[in-house]
Amino acid sequence: KQEVTQIPAALSVPEGENLVLNCSFTDSAIYNLQWFRQDPGKGLTSLLLIQSSQREQTSGRLNASLDKSSGRSTLYIAASQPGDSATYLCAVRQVDYGQNFVFGPGTRLSVLP
Amino acid sequence: GAGVSQTPSNKVTEKGKYVELRCDPISGHTALYWYRQSLGQGPEFLIYFQGTGAADDSGLPNDRFFAVRPEGSVSTLKIQRTERGDSAVYLCASSLSGNNEQFFGPGTRLTVL
């Protein structure tokens, strides 16, 4: 059974810092991995989607990498801003268990002004 | 509409009652997903539709839960004989097809008293 973990569970940084969020998964047979942000009381906003054949994706200050063989993905946020404060979730789309997504528990990020 | 919409945004019901939650996906998206999210956790997959049919319903917790998508667009998640443990935020997502980026709605917060 696929399990997705995220480290750290919570992170607090001063504005302007570069930071890395980690996502690990136990079964490397995945179609893709997607990073989301969730603001309190809101739905999920898609940030980046990495297909299993890709190594990384970039969007603005965000860069996500994927190492499928080791079951890891990282989300790099450059020059963090208070508006980046949210919970960041990763999710993997599996090959063997249909078309469902397995989510990690999320990393709660606070960027202090 | 521009994004995925869900109604109602909040639903309070009494134990034992029947509830229906509605999801309007992005126009043209053939894939639709339902998830359930408890406080402090990542979303948990419930069911995935490709067109009108349920391609994967392995996440439905028991036979009190049922979902339909009769015309391949709007979907309704139905919960019979609600229990207090059903209280959660129910999220809907859609994607262009099964392996594409998922876009989430704002969710329906269900509270069972």
Low-confidence stretches of chain A: none
Report the total helices of chain A: 0
C-alpha end-to-end distance of chain B: 33 Å
**Largest sheet report of chain B:** 7 strands, mixed
- Helix-strand pattern of chain A, N to C? EEEEEEEEEEE
Given as residue ranges, the uncertain stretches of chain B (5+ residues, pLDDT < 50) are none
Average residue-wise pLDDT of chain A: 93
- Please give the oligomerization state of what you see: heterodimer
Helix content of chain A: under 10%
Number of helices of chain B: 0
Largest interface in this structure: A-B, 25 and 28 residues
How would you sum up this structure, described in words?
The complex is a heterodimer of chains A (113) and B (113). Chain A has strands at residues 4-7, 10-14, 19-25, 30-38, 44-51, 56-59, 62-67, 72-77, 86-94, 101-103, 107-112. Chain A has 113 residues and is mostly beta strands. The model of chain A has no long low-confidence stretch (mean pLDDT 93). With 113 residues, chain B is mostly beta strands. Chain B has strands at residues 5-7, 10-13, 19-24, 31-37, 44-50, 53-56, 65-68, 75-79, 88-95, 103-104, 108-112. In chain B, strands 2, 4, 5, 6, 9, 10 and 11 form a 7-stranded mixed β-sheet that branches. A 4-stranded antiparallel β-sheet of chain B has the order 1-3-8-7, with no helix packed on it. The relative contact order of chain B is 0.33. Classes of the chains: A mainly beta (113), B mainly beta (113). At the A-B interface, strand 4, strand 5, strand 9 and strand 10 of A face strand 4, strand 5 and strand 10 of B.
